[in-house]
Amino acid sequence: MKRRQSYSQTDEPIINDEIDSNVFVDSTKCSKKDSSTNSDIIENTAVGDLPTTSRNKIAQFHTPRDSSKYEMKLNRRGICLILNQVHFEDHNDRSASEVDENTIQVTFTQLGFEVRIKRDLTFASISEVMGKLTREDHSDCDCISIFVLSHGEDNGKIYAKDMPYPLITIFTSLTNCISLAGKPKLFFIQISRISFQND
After folding, report:
1. What distances in angstroms separate CA 17 from CA 11, 118, 129, one per listed residue?
2. pLDDT at position 64, please?
3. 99 vs 85: CA distance, rounded Å
4. Are the C-beta atoms of 161 and 121 separated by less than 8 Å?
5. What are the two backbone dihedrals, phi and then psi, of residue 134, each rounded to the nearest 5 degrees?
6. Could you tell me which of 74, 93, 94, 155 has the fewest CB atoms within 10 Å of its CB?
7. How far, in Å, are 34, 39, 68, 78, 84 from residue 64 at the CA level?
8. Could you report the average pLDDT of every consecutive run of 10 residues in the chain (199 residues)?
9. Contact at 8 Å (CB) between 112 and 152?
């Protein structure tokens, strides 16, 4: 099957499109091996906290467990999400970050990704974006890529427009996305460190 190299009618990336009101999904779960399908059945003990598309679904692994590399043969390469924080309420701007954003956009478009750009989001909006991404169906995607460009601190926190938040929330936000199970999840973090000095 021929891979589609274009995912929209224009070459423009999707920038700050409409976002959903739900936030990060965090639910207790366990998995058990189904020997007949060689898949993991996700059993949720807090089903009400999960997106509808994740309930009672079987994770289909396209790459054999003993393989030394991921299979990249599905219809789409995947989504490339860029969370670019240029302006902040209480800190200096990162104007040069727009150059990095453009470079990422061009490069990952050439690699076949659907590039989505989100600029200057509050923490609540970042949560909404990641929640929406988790609920999407990525079954025909090879992988997913996420870039975070922002200010940061030594304690593992990065900045949204309005406040700092733990970087690990970005890493764990896709945990309950069944259609990304067994697929590469690429995270690229570019941080301008903020130093706090006593007066």
Report:
1. 15, 8, 9
2. 80
3. 12
4. yes
5. -65, -35
6. 155
7. 15, 10, 9, 20, 35
8. 42 47 35 37 32 56 82 93 94 90 98 97 96 95 97 92 94 92 94 62
9. no
| Dist. CA 198–CA 89, nearest whole Å | 20
Secondary structure, 3-state, the chain: CCCCCCCCCCCCCEECCCCCCCCCCCCCEEEEEECCCCEEEEEECCHHHCCHHHCCCEECCCCCCCCCCCCCCCCEEEEEEEEECCCCCCCCCCCCHHHHHHHHHHHHHHCCEEEEEEECCCHHHHHHHHHHHHHCCCCCEEEEEEEEEEEECCCCEEECCCCEEECHHHHHCCCCCHHHCCCCEEEEEEEEECCCCCC
Tokens found for residue 7: 């995912």
Overall size of the chain counted in residues: 199
Which residue type, as a one-letter code, is found at position 114? E
Q: How many Cα atoms occupy the beta-carbon half-sphere of 162 within 13 Å?
A: 7
Q: How far apart are CA 74 and CA 176, in angstroms?
A: 21
